[in-house]
Amino acid sequence: MKKEFNILAISGSLRNQSSNTLLLHAMIKLAPPTLKFGVYDELNDLPHFNPDLDVEEGPASVQNLRAQLKESDGVLICTPEYGNGVPGVLKNALDWVVSSGEWLNKPTVAIAASPSPMGGDKAHASLLLTLNMINAKVLNEASLTIPYITLKMNKQGVIIDSETQHALENSLLRLADACNQMNE
Ligand code: FNR
User: Which ligand 1 atom sits closest to the C-alpha of 79?
Assistant: First the structure.
């Protein structure tokens, strides 16, 4: 039985000072030691999804995304909301794996964090719809929206709100549990 699990961590923001990328790294520090993280930071390298490009020897960046997903036991996403929806770069990555199957049954935690009081709830709901469509194993109770993220995490990426920290730790424990169960 496996004792360690590879988690692919994806931020839905390309911004240098992204609160979601900071949050992703904060979560990695809070995670139980059985979870080993690789950060996928190549959203910007993917071409716009076009089924005509989705051929045997398709774009290298797409093959790379699919390979990293295939090698992972689970996925953690932290994303902002733009225009009441999922950021285009993240949706584009999801479109590339809708029919390729690497995400099938993979335990997945999706977090949306926003400075707004709504916490990116529309992006979160839309992201879950897509993840369910591609048959990821979405951990609903571990998947959170975080309103007022700038009040809950400082600029150094330290979670300064104990309730939020507890919720994030709980999400990570659920992710570890789900990875364990999938490998029993
Ligand atoms: C936003 N932002 C935003 N926030 C939100 O909760 N719902 C929304 O629909 C939008 N829409 C939106 C559009 C545009 C064009 C911008 C520039 C911003 C605010 C957004 O949550 C904020 O900029 C976050 O800081 C972005 O996340 P990162 O990059 O900090 O992770």
Answer: 31
The whole-number average pLDDT for the span 4-33 is 98
List the one residue out of 23, 27, 20 whose CA is nearest residue 7: 27
Q: Count other C-beta atoms under 10 Å from residue 13's C-beta.
A: 22
Q: Which residues span the domain enclosing 55? A: 5-182
36 DSSP β-pair partners? 6
Q: How far is the CA of 125 from the centre of ligand 1 (A)?
A: 16
Tell me, what CATH number does 64's domain have?
3.40.50.360
Pocket-testing residue among 14, 27, 81, ligand 1, by greatest number of atoms within 8 A of Cβ: 81
- Distance between Cα 123 and ligand 1 center (Å): 10
- Cβ-contact 123, 88 below 8 angstroms: no
Interval between CA 42 and ligand 1 midpoint (Å): 20
Distance 103 CA to ligand 1 centre (A): 27
Enumerate residues 6+ apart whose C-beta is below 8 A from 134.
94, 97, 98, 103, 104
pLDDT in tens, 56-110: 888 999 999 999 999 999 999 999 999 999 999 999 999 999 999 999 999 999 9
- 74-79 and 5-11 strand pairing: parallel
Q: For residue 139, what are the contacts with CB-CB under 8 A and spacing of at least 6?
A: 107, 108, 109, 171, 174, 175, 178
**What is the number of structural domains in the chain?**
1
